[in-house]
Amino acid sequence: MKLRWIGLALTALLVAGGCASTPQDSGGGSGGAGSSGILKVGTVDYIDTLNPFIAIESQAYNAFVMIYPQLVQYGPGLEVEGDWAKSWENTPDGLKWTFHLEPGVKWSDGEPMTAADAAWTGNTIIKYGDGPTAVFADVLNHIKKFSAPDDETLVIEYEEPIGNVLAQLEQFFIFPKHVWSQYLGDKGKDLKTFQPEKDLPTVAGGAYFIDQYEKKGTTVYKPNPEFYGPESNAEAVALIYYTNSTSMIADLRAGTLDWIESVPTNALETLESESGITVDSTGSSQVDNITFNVNPVKPQNRELLDPKVREALEYATDRQEIVDVVHNGHAKPWANLISSQSGDFVNPDVKPLPYDPDKANQILDSLGYEMKNGVRWAPATSGKYAQPAHPMSYEVIVPSSLNYNGDRNFEIIKDNWAQVGVEVKLKPGGDTAQAYALETAGDYTKFDLATWNWVGYIDPDFMLSVVTKGQWYSWNDTGYNDPSYDRMYEKQATLVDPQERRDLVWEMQAKLGRERPYIHTVQEEIIMAYRDEWSGIYPDLGAYCKCYYTSPKKTQ
Amino acid sequence: MRGADYLIKRTGAALLTVFVAITLNFVLFRAVPGSAITALRCQHCTKQFKAALEKELGLDKPMLQQYTIYLGNLAQGDLGTSLVDRRPVWQNLKGPILNTLPMLAVATIVSIVIGVAAGVMSAWRRGTKVDRINTWTALSFYAMPTQWIGLMIVFYVALRFGFPVAGIRDPTLGILGEPSTWTVINDRIRHLILPALTLGIGLYGEYALIVRSSMLETLGEDYVLTARAKGLKNLRIVYRHGLRNAMLPLVTLIALSFGYILAGAIVIEEVFSYPGIGLATIDAIDRRDYPVLQGAFLLLTLTVIFFNFVADLLYFKLDPRVTA
Amino acid sequence: MTMEAVPPPGGTVAAPVHSNQSRRGALRRLLAGDRQALVGTVVLALFVAVAVAAPVLSPYSPTAKVGDVYGRPSPAHWLGLDDGGIDMLTLLIWGARVSLLVGFAASLMAMLIGGTVGILSGYMGGKTDTVLMRVTDYFLVIPDVPLMIVVAAIWGQSLFNIVVIIAVIYWTSTARLIRSQVKSVREQVYVKRARSLGASNARLIIKHVLPQVTPLLVANTVLTVATAIFAETYIAFLGLGDPSQVSWGKLIQNSLTGGAIFSDAWWAIVPPGICVTLVILACTMVGQSMEDAMNPRLKVGHLSVHRFRLRSFPREPGGV
Questions:
Q1: What is the value of ipTM here, to two decimals?
Q2: Stated pTM of the model
Q3: Are C262 and A250 within 8 A, CB to CB?
Q4: Cα–Cα distance between B301 and C146 in angstroms, integer?
Q5: Domain C31-58+86-295 has CATH 1.20.140.10
């Protein structure tokens, strides 16, 4: 759910229509592989699990990019390039795509790595798409089937032509059939219970295999000797988890760390003034939000189901204060589900409402929620979902795994909303899995509010999917369930004409903007810092490219 | 009351407390609203999965039966299985415990050393400014929240002098080949020293005071005063005599302080990102991994019981007039 | 987790008070005569006054952003601003409320529980005594911080839960102390006489035992306040405090999560700890002086280790 892709605000390049291309050499430098020692990366985001079917954290997705082969990836400049696939072509009707894979490759355990693995992975995901493999189901939407006519050729057949083939396939990981096919029991449910972390080193086909995994410790990536692509400059990559950013920054300054992926904004000044450290501020695709439970059969606090109430609450939210206090100015007010990384796909008409508590009060007054002692009361209702009169007082789930100060963020919202008579209480959400389970509890009937964030991709497809019914219990955290939206989602992927697709995507955003299952608050900048001895660091390619880890090399 | 009687009685009491601890531990974690499983949240925890897990862990059986099974498992050293990673609880806890122990040991040594030094100095210079400053310093440090001492040390000491402030070791040691034993030891010590120092400083206060007061008793005696008047030659005798008097209460106190040391260790681990039993407990909470939590809690309780029992025995030696 | 040590040097010690003299008088004489107790009381009273007067006293609102994140101390903001741009001095003043409230409430509850158990145990003796002491034994060995963690996780993080859990962990020493006191009172002649005259147990307890025991109870409660405040900082630091309340413990936690260290913001780190230390020291001074003055036996038994542990030791000196 929380994929964190660090990216520049460049227009996504989609390769639509027939087009063959050859992979670029992504970034590796000269100097000999493994000459750079260990690349020590510090993070406060942990890899929640090595099982791709249940992982939520973006750090886990980064791991999958590193250890599993993909057909294509994003290279420097955020251009699609081949990963395992050297070249590809498609039939003019767009119904059949053929990928030519690097031949003679093996998995890290010596087993041959062939197109059959890719086909098996793809077909398995499709087969169990309604269940255990749902997290990847939308990635392979509209695909009829995968087949492997020979060891190095993969053929994908589509039900209808879609407009973002490569962008979608960039999210597709290929798993070793000889390892994973043992876990198809119980209608594929075993896929979700298999723990690769118990079986280290992982069997890998990408640039690295994972030799050591500690969820809240150090994860070690070692170069996969069988890797088909450019070798890693670093002899190993150590991803070191910190429970607090104070120690992480101290270690960077001391030289114990080489690279911090996400610097807390109030450490910027200190780091910028330090010689030996480079600070790089990148645009980002992380959008923070206030999540509403908009499941229409939610039994309590049903006044929150009224879009007008949510609109009032948006007026009541001071985004600038969040920008200033929580992100030290390194963010901007934002109202869109899709981040600016998606370029043209962002609907410019969906804008943040101005901070206007008076307007908010006006709306809430007009809806009949009277103020009593500073808190508004929702009157009793009758009918199927009758509730007694009750104060507008809610619990907000705040996960402990946020990469910004969630408490501070909450305090601002609490203060803002108190001005319009709405009271909120912080409910600690626990880690990602816990918090998500709180949201899905009782089939999305138990929670009212949460604060969280999304990290999207360049192609908007993934972000648009998180509010579909198909992603219930998978990526959907709002309980949003609108068949007309779902139809639009299905359709947009199939539109080959970029303009048509863009228009439909804009329409979808406009709809979400009106209905507000989320109040998106800000889009964050992600700030990286690394020691000057290292070069070849691509801040925007996290979890997009294997070069993110293979390219950095020590030059001093 | 005879020594043997006392011993038997105290052993009996300790064993009873152990039994009560085990039982209440069981009850505490079954008292979770809902069962441990319904409270469990995970991405793939559908209703069927939870039902299956309940069955597998025997949580669908009647309470009494579960209790018996629990006791039986404990007797075999089985603390249960983690709900999150499905490994035995002991596997989850073993590493953290082994991480915390050296820190606790060093912290205790530090606190004893400083405590004894301060206590002796105070007793020797009783009533003077030195005594007053010493005692108030000791009291003050004891009153300071241990985590705050830690933060101050990180702020004013660690960063200035380049001490590592996180973790138990350099995470990259051993990735590319085996480091020498000396490197490993050096590394561990460097990581250990600040957390242990912090904990030791927060602890020494009570030791200083007990050393002081028990030495005061001896040092007030006539022969000692005479010895002092004669000069430093007898210093050593006085020290040995005075300190010996203080040793037993001191050691008893140390045994009793285990709970306090532990509490301090937990927050210190949070400050220094030290992957010990404290962080493991916090992590278990975060993940709602009740078996691990229950296991950790039980182990800690049993350890405290053990140390209190040791203190009991020492106390008997201290004051043989003790009756039942 | 506080000190019941010999009176630290510098304070004059009140004359030993005999148990059948007026206890209240002893208290007054003590406070007047013992400089240490006086200082402690004054400091404590100051903090309480500040806490009570918080709405009036605080220069700014404890939730309003009034400047930059980690703004430096200035004439307008004596202790600078925290990571939310909120005035630190205001936060400290309001934090006093929560910390002191938790301290006193938990301590009071501990006193009630411990006092009741101690009185019943000491007075009834026999089976009741044994059972209650075994129960006390168990509560003694529960590791405090892990229990707090568990309770917060299971029953939620609210101020009430925190007060209860602190009380539940720390009542034991009070119980033991009161128990030994009650036992000695029980043996006193006039109590025996009253019993032989047929007075009911309850009446005896209330009329004779309680007045003898109360001053010690009060002294012990003051000491427990220190422990409770200390415990609250631990709970808050681990993120288990009430999320809607700002206490000193929470301020210490904020300094870590808000990055005060790498922002060089000493004003966010140092003051809350100093406040906690001062209050705990003050409580210790007062409580300990009271205890020493009231119960000469305790003073004499300075070798008894139990005096140094608030969560005391299974056995009492002198064959109790």
A1: 0.83
A2: 0.82
A3: yes
A4: 9
A5: no
